[in-house]
């Protein structure tokens, strides 16, 4: 028997706002580039184009993931969020390579930086907006267990790191006259983005490959099972996996052979409620079997 997860929040609306924010930041950064002529600020603006595409991908994935289970997708559509996160990771890596493609030739043939403080101020304003939105996305995404929004938040935060590094380089190049600083800082920021993209891809692929919960969460589940299964004898073959904001929990419940179906059902109801209270977004499936099938290497009920 199964227990369904509880619904939380409205991530689709947040993803839609994220697209608007990404378009606003893109416009501001291109204005900053036109005012300064800095190759580093141009690279920063290029990454913002990818931010818009990534935000759109997150919106589409979240819209799909909200669809209820159907005949062809009996477990729902929540894994669409992981696909979005993979896309975000790939786009972060592509953004880094696009910056390197522009910055390396400029490092070999540096040009004097004639950046205006107005242009740098516009870029700084865009970065502040990005930082505030990225912080909100990460907090909201983790609270509502949304891999797509967390990935979008990490992507936007990597853009903030890019912008800060670029601004430091532009200011330093302008004050010192050392033109190499402009592309050099862009290259260093690109390498940092590559690292961020790799971690995001690793986490997303883990979700697509049905990675189970961490050891700490599994210990919590086992503790809840052992303290709310009075009347049963044993629980074994515990399996877990993540699918977007839903965590699937499956296990076998061993009961005395003479126990009635109604009594076993009552124990299952109690266990389902306890697990879902402990682990928000859990979807619990329990297979009941008689004591003759007990394996004696699961969670023994005292």
TrEMBL record:
Q: What is its main location?
A: membrane
In terms of InterPro entries, this protein maps to: Cation_efflux (IPR002524), Cation_efflux_CTD (IPR027470), Cation_efflux_CTD_sf (IPR036837), Cation_efflux_TM (IPR058533), Cation_efflux_TMD_sf (IPR027469), CDF_Transporter (IPR050291)
Q: Name one Pfam family in it.
A: Cation_efflux
State any GO BP term from the record.
Answer: intracellular zinc ion homeostasis
Task: Cite the entry's keywords alphabetically.
Answer: Cell membrane, Membrane, Transmembrane, Transmembrane helix, Transport
User: Which molecular-function annotations from GO does this UniProt entry contain?
Assistant: cadmium ion transmembrane transporter activity; ferrous iron transmembrane transporter activity; zinc efflux antiporter activity
Q: Name one GO cellular component term.
A: plasma membrane
Supply the name of the protein: Cation transporter
Please name the source species: Deinococcus cavernae
